[in-house]
Amino acid sequence: MTCVRCGGIMIGIPPLYLLSTDSYSPSGSDQLEGEAWQCVNCGEYVDEIILANRASRPLTAAVMS
Predict the structure, then answer these.
(1) How far apart are CA 47 and CA 34, in angstroms?
(2) d(C-alpha 41, C-alpha 9), whole Å
(3) Whole-model pTM?
(4) Is residue 63 part of a domain?
(5) pLDDT for the residue numbered 10
(6) Structural domains in the chain (count)
(7) Phi, psi of 49 (to 5 degrees)
(8) For the chain, what percent of residues have pLDDT higher than 70?
(9) Is 8 domain-assigned?
(10) How far apart are CA 60 and CA 44, in angstroms?
């Protein structure tokens, strides 16, 4: 996979919510499956939640005058 920010190599890592504190206990609605990717050059982090949020927002911003 190639990073969209810098063109570097993306490597698969565990999602960050799995790497949180020991006191984290997932609820029934938490999804523990999934993939996450991080760029070895610039550090860009992408997981399923980030991709879903990026897909749901408008592509163009309104210009205020």
Answers:
(1) 8
(2) 7
(3) 0.62
(4) no
(5) 96
(6) 1
(7) -70, -45
(8) 62
(9) yes
(10) 22
